[in-house]
Design goal:
transcription; single chain; DNA-binding; Tet_transcr_reg_TetR-rel_C_sf; mainly alpha; Arc Repressor Mutant, subunit A; transcription regulation; transcription cis-regulatory region binding
């Protein structure tokens, strides 16, 4: 009998940490609730265990501590959505996918604001969240660009990291600095004035 590959924390480190998916979801939901209610500094493993009706032993079997658990909870906010549609065009894919991530980032907004002071004081938390931020959305962006390349809409120089980093920068700029809404106008202008020109730079289109 072949042993199952052990689950890992978002940064890939740690010992074997298999956990029932429903129990893991309950724990991570408790983390998000407590982050919103009391903040990172005042949140404890004991509180999470009580809220999720789990034992501390169960929590430590899956995560090494509070910072790793928070990074996992933030990661969960990003990956839990329906698959993005294949609309048949690059513009259509961008216009359909960007609102999904707008809603995700709106959910993360209040939590991220509460985490900023903790990130300054806890380098481990900052490192784990940075890793999560770099990875989130990359798989969806890669699939989108692969389809666009197959259709001849972008060239080989169009990069996943560029699409992900620019999009996230625009989202966080609005949420953290200007306070402007992530509405339909924002999506349309971002797609037509920023993302499409960026990704299609150098692509020769047939006349007409």
């Amino acid at each position: 009998m072949t042993a199952r590959e052990p689950d890992r924390a978002p940064d890939g480190r740690g010992a074997v940490r298999n956990l029932n998916p429903e129990r893991e979801r309950a724990i991570l939901d408790a983390v998000l609730e407590l982050l919103s209610e009391v903040g990172y500094d005042r949140m404890s493993i004991d509180q999470v265990a009580r809220r999720a009706r789990a034992s501390k032993a169960t929590i430590y079997r899956r995560w090494s501590g509070k910072a790793e658990m928070v990074a996992a909870a933030m990661h969960g906010l990003t990956v839990e959505h329906r698959p993005l549609p294949d609309t048949g065009t690059l513009r259509g894919d961008l216009a359909a996918g960007l609102p999904v991530f707008c809603r995700i980032y709106e959910r993360k907004h209040a939590i991220v604001l509460g985490l900023l002071p903790a990130i300054r004081d806890d380098p481990e938390l900052g490192r784990l969240l940075h890793g999560h931020m770099l990875r989130s959305g990359a798989d969806e962006a890669a699939e989108l660009l692969d389809r666009a390349r197959a259709r001849g809409e972008v060239g080989p120089e169009a990069r996943v990291t560029t699409l992900v980093e620019v999009t996230k920068a625009l989202l966080w700029h609005r949420l953290l600095l200007t306070g402007e809404p992530l509405d339909e106008d924002f999506v349309a202008r971002t797609v037509d004035e920023v993302l499409l020109p960026l990704l299609q730079a150098g692509v020769t289109r047939p006349p007409g």
